[in-house]
Design brief:
Helix content is 69%, strand content 0%. It is mainly α. It has a single domain, classed as YP_001051499.1 domain like (YP_001051499.1 fold like). Helix 8 runs antiparallel to helix 9. The protein is globular, with a radius of gyration of 16 Å. The chain starts with 6 loop residues before the first helix and ends in an 11-residue tail after the last helix. The relative contact order is 0.18. This is DUF416 family protein.
């Protein structure tokens, strides 16, 4: 596990904060899944968008009834298998699914570790991308000095500051807006529109 200054804070989030944090990272990385779908000419991008939307709806619409157990069964069927593909893009797509899975777990089993797991997955996506480019394994201190790492740590720190407020639909919507206006995935790929 990467030792990051936000790890302890992530472990101490309330249940709703865990869920929103996971959803925010899912929102930030969903483009990776779409790029994978484009490369494989798959139409599963709509399915992943619907799943992401259901989480936001559950957190912002009072009385929203969503069966996440059923949704998770559908979700499990669309996770790519790295063994079926021989190009790098499958890995960030799978990492997005891991983060979305953390969001599911935060709702279904109320685990206290899901925000930390999502954060670590997000950083491991960056680490594998940097190592792919440098063609060597790098130690944590070198990784953490990379611009993508620094930007992501700032992004997640700001998310945590936003979550340190009273829960309200407006706050949760503002967090989703913050992610969209941030305008890039954790790999620095610009979000469309």
């Amino acid at each position: 596990m990467l030792s990051l200054p936000i790890n302890e804070q992530l472990e101490n989030l309330l249940s709703w904060q865990q869920s929103v944090f996971c959803m925010a990272l899912s929102e930030q990385t969903v483009l990776h899944f779409h790029l994978f779908c484009d490369a494989t000419e798959s139409d599963l991008g709509d399915d992943i968008d619907k799943l992401n939307q259901l989480f936001w709806e559950k957190m912002t619409v009072k009385g929203a009834k969503i069966n996440f157990t059923t949704q998770q069964e559908h979700f499990d069927e669309i996770i790519p298998d790295a063994g079926d593909h021989d190009f790098y893009g499958v890995y960030p797509a799978i990492d997005h699914c891991v983060i979305l899975s953390c969001a599911f777990n935060s709702f279904l089993i109320k685990s206290k570790e899901e925000a930390l797991n999502a954060s670590q997955t997000n950083f491991s996506t960056i680490a594998s991308f940097i190592e792919l480019q440098s063609e060597e394994e790098l130690d944590d201190s070198v990784l953490q000095s990379q611009p993508l790492f620094i930007a992501q740590l700032e992004f997640q720190t700001e998310l945590l500051q936003m979550l340190d407020n009273e829960r309200s639909p407006e706050l949760i919507k503002s967090i989703r807006t913050f992610v969209r206006e941030y305008g890039a995935t954790n790999l620095g790929i610009e979000l469309e529109g």
